[in-house]
Amino acid sequence: MTNTGLILQACSGLVLFFFLAWLFSENRRHVNFKAAFMGFAIQIALAIIVTKFSVVRAGFLAIGDGVMALKDATTAGTSFVFGYLGGGESPFHPKEGASSFIFAFQALPMVIVISAISMLLFHWRVLPMIVKLFSGVFQKVLSIGGALGVCAAAKIFLGQTEAPLLVRPYLGKFTRSELFTVMTAGMATTSISIMVVYAMILEKTIPDPIAHILTASIISVPAAITISRILIPQVGEDTSGHLVVPYQFSGSMEALTQGTSDGMRLYINIVAMLIVFLAVVALANSILSLFPTVGGETMSLQLLLGYILAPLAWFLGIPWEEAVPAGALLGKKTILNEIVAFVGLAELPQGSLSLKSSLIMTYALAGFANLSSIGIQIGGIGTMVPERKQEIISLGIKALIAGTIASCMSGAIIGILYSIG
User: Fold this and answer.
1) Among 63-72, 115-124, 171-180, 232-241, which range has the highest average pLDDT?
2) How many CA atoms lie within 13 A of 184 on its CB side?
3) Residue-wise over 297-330: b if at least 16 C-beta within 10 A, else e?
4) How far is 297 from 287, CA to CA, in rounded Å?
5) CB of 177 closer than 8 Å to CB of 159
6) Residue 1: its pLDDT value, please?
7) Quick check: helix, strand or coil at residue 294?
8) I want to staple 224 with a disulfide (CB 3.0 to 4.6 A). Which of 74, 79, 112, 406 is the partner?
9) What are the backbone angles phi and psi of residue 208, rounded to the nearest 5°?
10) pTM for the whole thing?
11) Distance of alpha carbon 368 from its chain centroid, rounded?
12) Within 13 A of 386's CA, how many CA atoms are on the CB side?
C-alpha cells in the first residue's frame, strides 16, 4: 500500500478514536470540543517538535547516550555481583549461536539504578523543577487545574501510583473527571524506571529506542487528558493546587538508599510477573494447540489475539498483511502487560513488521494500560483516598480503554509523520 493510503488509514483511525470517545461519553452535551481540539493539537505539535527539529532530536539522542552510559555503569555492578551471568567475562566459550544475555541479571538491574538516581534527582529538586515546567504548560494550554497539571506532568517520569503522591492532599477534592484523568494518564504512559528496560529489549528492533519511548510518554499525556475529558467531561470548577514533595530526606545518601529499596521491590515484581505471565501464555498455547489449525498455523494466544485486534492495528496505519502480528502485540499488552508485548515485538521473525510498523507499535505499546494496572490503581490511589475507592473501582475498565486509545493515538500520529518524511 502507498504512503498516502497508510496516512489516510491512520487519519481515519484518529477520527474513529475521537468518535468512540464521544459516543460513550457520560455527558456528551458538556464535552468541551475546543479543549479537545487543543489537546490533540498539542499532541501533534509535541510529536513534530521532538521528531522533526534537529536540536530537540539531538537532545533526545544525548539522553540515549546517557542511558547507554548508565547501562555500562550498571554492568560494572552486575559483573561484580553476578560474574559472567551479569555481563562479566565468561570463563568458558559459549556454544556457537547460543546467547549469553540473561535478562534478569543484565537488563532488569537497570530498574534499581534508575530508581535510585530518580530519587536522588527528586531530593536535589531537579525532577520537581521539570514537573513544574510541564505542569505550567498543561494548565495554560489544556485548561486544567493546577493539581491535575502537576500530576499529569509528573506522569511523564513517574509511575501510576507515584505521580498522584505529588498531589495527594488534593485527590479527595478532585471531580470525577479529574480523578478519571489521573487514572487514564497512568494507563497511557510509563515511568522512567521502566523505560530503560523497554529500550534494552528493543535495542536491535528500532534505532534509538529510548528516544522514542520517552517521546511516547510525553505526547501521550495530552492525549490522555483529551480522551478522558471527552469520556467524562469536567463539570464545575477545576481543582487548584501545587506540587507537594512527598519525600523528605536528610541527605543524598538516604535518597539513594530509599530509591534503591524501591527499585529492588520493582525488580522483584517485574521478574515475578514475567515468569507467571509467560508461563500463562505457554499454558494457554498448549491448550489452544489442541484446536484445529487456522490457515495452516497452529492455534495460539498470539494468533487468536492477532485476528481479533488486527482491525485496530490497521487503523494505526499498519498494512493489513502486518496487522495480525501487530494485533497480537496489542492483545498481549492489554491482557498481560507491555513488557511481555515488547519482548514479543523484539522476537518477531524478521520481515513480520516493517521498521515503520515497529515504530508505530513501540508508541502504541508504551503504556501501562493492562488488566493488572487496574488492580495497581485500586490498591495505590484507592489507599490515598479510601473514601473514593469504590469510584476508582468503577472507573478501572474505562480508564484502561481510554489509556489504550491515547497510546494508539500516539502510534498513529508517529506513523503519519514517518510517512510524510
Assistant:
1) 171-180
2) 31
3) eebbbbbbbbbebbebbbbbbbbeebbbbbbbbb
4) 15
5) no
6) 59
7) strand
8) 406
9) 50, 60
10) 0.86
11) 5
12) 1
Q: Do residues 378 and 394 touch, judged by C-beta distance below 8 A?
A: no
Sorted by sequence, the CB contacts under 8 Å of residue 360 that are 6+ apart come out as 316, 317, 318, 326, 411, 412, 414, 415, 418
Domain boundaries, the chain: 18-86+101-258+355-420
Among left, alpha and beta (phi > 0; psi -120 to 50; other), residue 317 is left
Beta bridge partners of 297: 294
In contact, 354 and 397? CB cutoff 8 Å: no
HSE of 206 in the Cβ direction (CA atoms, 13 Å)?
A: 25
Q: Does pLDDT of 188 surpass 70? A: yes
Please, what is the angle between helix 371-384 and helix 389-420, to 10°?
Answer: 130
Identify the residue whose cell numbers are 468512540.
20
Q: Would you state the cell numbers that stand for residue 370, as one nine-digit string?
A: 493492562
CA gap 306, 329 in Å, rounded? 7
